[in-house]
Amino acid sequence: MNQASPVNEKASRSFSALGKLFRTTTFKLTLVYLTVFALFAVALLGYFALNTRRLITEQITDTVNAEITGLSEQYRLGGIRRLVLTVDARARRPGSSLYLVTTFNGDTLAGNVTALPSGVLESNGWIETPYRRLDETEAATQPNHIALVRVFQLPGGFRILVGRDLEERERLYDIVLAAGRWSVALVIVLGLGGGLFVTRRVLRRVDAMTETSRSIMAGDLGERLPVDGTGDELDRLAENLNIMLERIEALMHGLKEVSDNIAHDLKTPLTRLRNRTEEALRTAKSEGEYRAALEGTIEESDGLIRTFNALLMIARAESGQARDDMVEFDAADVARDVGELYEPLADEKGIALKVDADVPAMLKGNRDLVSQAVANLVDNAIKYCVSPDRSADAPPLEIVVRAANEGDRVLLTVADNGPGIPEADRARALERFVRLEQSRSLPGSGLGLSLAAAVARLHGGELTLADNAPGLKSVIALPRAGPLQMAG
Amino acid sequence: MPSYDISYTQRGLGRSAEAQPDRVTMRLLIIEDDRDAADYLVKAFREVGHVADAATDGEDGLAMALDGEYDVLIVDRMLPKRDGLAVIGELRKKRIETPALILSALGQVDDRVKGLRAGGDDYLPKPYSFSELLARVEVLSRRRGGRNEETELRVGDLHLDRLSHLVRRGEEEITLQPREFRLLEYLMKHAGQVVTRTMLLENVWDYHFDPQTNVIDVHISRLRSKIDKGFAQPLLHTVRGAGYMIRDGAR
Known about the structure:
The complex is a heterodimer.
Chain A (H helix, E strand, L loop, with lengths): L5 H10 L1 H7 L1 H68 L5 E5 L5 E4 L1 E2 L10 E9 L11 E9 L5 E7 L1 H51 L15 H51 L3 H33 L7 E4 H18 L3 E5 L5 E4 L1 H19 L12 E9 L2 E8 L6 H7 L18 H11 L3 E6 L4 E8 L3 H5 L1
Parallel strand pairs in A: 8-10
Antiparallel strand pairs in A: 1-2, 1-6, 3-4, 4-5, 5-6, 7-9, 10-11, 11-13, 12-13
Chain B lengths: L2 E2 L3 H6 L13 E5 L3 H13 L3 E5 L2 H10 L4 E5 L7 H10 L6 E5 L4 H9 L4 E4 L4 H14 L8 E4 L2 E4 L4 E4 L2 E3 L3 H12 L5 E2 H8 L10 H13 L8 E4 L3 E4 L5
Parallel strand pairs in B: 1-12, 2-3, 2-4, 4-5, 5-6
Antiparallel strand pairs in B: 7-8, 8-9, 9-10, 11-13, 12-13
């Protein structure tokens, strides 16, 4: 896709490394969480600050109200003189509230507050105002303090002002604000750091996977994705991909084997075909000889086609393509039908073919393929159970085709009492194109058992060869359809 | 064993006039993109007395099939311009029911099912022998004759009652196994036509695979021993290189 030269590509790749980091899902997720947490912290602290402020204000107004009530009581009891004395006494206490008593025209009678802006004393009720304490020098009080005060009109034209400094409230407010700033900064720093750490970790593993898959794509099917054993989602992904790779490798291996075998086993008859035709061209004199050669050619090519078809069928079964047309059917029917198809042929060779399939044995699969697999086994049994060195007093030859249920499996068995296959040769007999020495002279492609085995595997079962004592017992074991199968 | 020799090489030479099956001239359309294969088929069909045209892509083939009066279409599965199944589908949509045989290099069971579902009447995987193709095409062209409806089939003095399942040769009643009955029924339904082993396996046994040994031959020889043994005139003939044919040889 990218037409850039390799050098440019490399440069731009390292340049975009950071960009790659920012583009990852993990990093984006981190950013989202970061924003959410920061907003949460701000909201929490904001709520805290507002409430604290409200509480402190409430406390101040309560105190001021109580003092005003107390002072007006003093005034009522002892007139202005007593009020002035009380205020003087209170104003001198350390940490006291702010007091001011004035005449109706504004002259100060008592108190510890000065430098109020004009108009404050004329107002009535609550007001926030700058002020200065009497015991402070003017220079030290720049800027002015702020206080929350209440002015109260006494009967007789006197006014009292009571208030409290708001510094405490503002300081607390500042502390909360600072805490807010710090915590948001901390959240962002830690979140970004953590996010980058996690992202880089994930990115490293994904990069490792990408690297491996590149080398697999380049042709090294033996490579596997790294699994670090933590069992996390990346591990599970890697494990599954590895299983997939294993399957692909097996398929590729099978394909290679097939093509090798095709090359080997189709070339032989092709060569024979060619030689025969060539020889006819060179030596045939009469039309009859030509005809015989041509007929031989057709016969040979028919055999080739048959081998080719069998190979395709095996490849198809092994690749799992035939899974599309799976239906439920009775294996007992298959056993009966195949038995019926081969009975005359067996009879002609002096073999008694019996079918033992009285109980329904339900399967889910490709009926045609399973029939063909059983047919191949019967075909083999008929071909190989007549051995030339059979003694005259041996028991009569017999082939039994059986369909039976066994647990959650259905067994399709073809058993004969012929010479059988020695145990050492049985595994080899299942391989493609293998024709054991004693059978070389008989017709056939050597693919019958391979096809039966491939069909069994396609249906999730297996083909086994066993001793029938005497003879050979070929068993196709397939998972049974229906409720019993659910357990397995 | 009586043996009619009508393998196509001989038919081409026109040497076995007396062994020809009952043959009516058919008009065939071959839609096949491989020109060599198409030419070979046209020539081969002409040699056995049929009229054959060829088209090399789906569009031409469809146009010709719509225009001409053909008895059977032979359609390759994979064609340029328009896929073989699409051609058949289009014809069926236009209510043109000319029997169609699909030729395909794919040749798998599900592929065959797909072909028949698309409106094809028969399916033959490549590579095929001409005798197999000829036998199937002749059966397809005859299918329109409506022999399926007859309740009694008759070849010479052989009678088969499809309702009562009774088989009679002359005055003698013949007892057949169910499968033998179906085998004979199929052969008699196509009396005078060559029926191949694959056709028998497909239509009588419903198997679509190739048994390694020719089991069909043994079934035929059993059937032959029941219907021909002891009679002067054999009815069930082996057609060398092709298959079997039931036919009243007395005519």
